[in-house]
Every structure is written in C-alpha cells, then in structure tokens.
Design a protein that fits this description.
single chain; 109 residues; alpha+beta; 2 domains; 3-stranded antiparallel beta sheet; 5 helices; 51% helix; 16% strand
Length: 109
Amino acid sequence: MIVITPESSALQAPEEWNEQYKEKDFWGQDKYEIGRRLSALAPEERTPEVIAEIIGNTTWAQSTACDECGLYCDVVVSFENFSGYAFMLCKDCLKNALAEVNKEKEKVK
C-alpha cells in the first residue's frame, strides 16, 4: 500500500521518466535531455510545477483518478496484488469500504 500525491509523484518523476525513456536511440534526443534535466533536480526542487515545466505537461505529477469512483483526487492509496496489478482508492472510497467491512462484521456477531 502506497499513498500517492502530486508531490510524491513529482519526487519519483525523474526515475520513472528515465525508466520509460531509457532507449535513447528509440525515443530520441529530446526525451534524453528531459531525463537529464529531471535527474539534475535535487529532491527539494522536484515540485509538480517544476516537473511540468521541464516535461511540458502536468501528467507526471498531477492528481490521480480513484479506480472506484473515477474522481481525480490529490491523495489516493495504491494497492498492488501479487501479480503486480495496482488499483487506487481515494479517501472517501476507503471510508466506504471500511464501513462495508464493519457492517459485515456486525452481521456475523
């Protein structure tokens, strides 16, 4: 279980970018240069705004969609199963899930 925010995504953006675009000959010089600029950032410089400015869009450090309700939220929790599939839940959907668990527990008593 991992908590994901735009800020945490921004911190991970250089590593994720360089992993995705590691084949310089395939992706080209521009992707390589973006990766170089991202990697040069100190952790405290890796804000969503700075990442977006370097990449040219906000998709690498923005709100994430909840897989249950579909709303974009600034905080989601990512759950990954044994096969590597991950799903994201927002705070409201997590609360609803916990309420359902508690209702079921009451039925068993």
